[in-house]
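Example 3.2
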Amino acid sequence: MLTSFFGRVLFLISAIIFCVLQSLLWMGDGGILDAQQIKEEVANQKAQNKKLAERNRILQAEVDDLKSGTEAIEGHARSDLGMIQEGETFFLVTATPKPSSE
């Protein structure tokens, strides 16, 4: 078949079609390279979602704690706002300045 001119042309056209189809399979839209990239993006997104779900769980526990009791509210008032209860004495301890070595 490859001895005739028609056979050689047919073989050449078949080879070109095969190469074009292979390039589309590997590099075209929805090809193997795109599928691999999408798999990596999905894995990254799942990892990020896992971190955010853990953060949401912690925040929800804090919200539930604030809704259920006064200890958490009191703790936030003391640490964030510097509040003290009635009858308590507030002491401010400052560090003594270190002498300069001049």
